[in-house]
User: What shape does this take?
Amino acid sequence: MMDKQEIRKQISKKMKLIRVEYGYTQDRMSEILGLSKKTLVQVEKQRTLAGWTTVVAVCALFQESDVLRGILGDAPVEIVETIAHKQVEPQGKKTLGGKVWWYNIAATEKYTLQQNVMSQHYRIIDSEDYRLFRRWIV
Assistant: This one.
């Protein structure tokens, strides 16, 4: 099960790849994330872990990253939000239906209960793929 510490480790390991994927220099990446270049270098060389705030910023600002999606699945922001809150209220957000990153646990004509393959959190979507509820089970 992923928690804050595990996500920090995983994203820290891939920080350089995310930066390179976007074609950014260390100066530009540190500016975008609000880090000193020295701190970014320390993270990229795996001498230190990125802080939780930095990880959340990476997930929000680079959510389309293939590298990031390889770590957290198709919804990096949703994953860190769910982990941070342990439970997030229903948002009614349209999803892709869980075709790749979700296991269907149970389904009726109107609703499907799914579990994320990466974070292990659950969600309920309706027959039109709108998220009705999600929860991190501790």
Remarks:
- Residues 21 and 65 are 7 Å apart (CA to CA).
- The chain has six helices and five strands.
- The chain has a mean pLDDT of 87.
- The first strand starts at residue 87 and ends at 88.
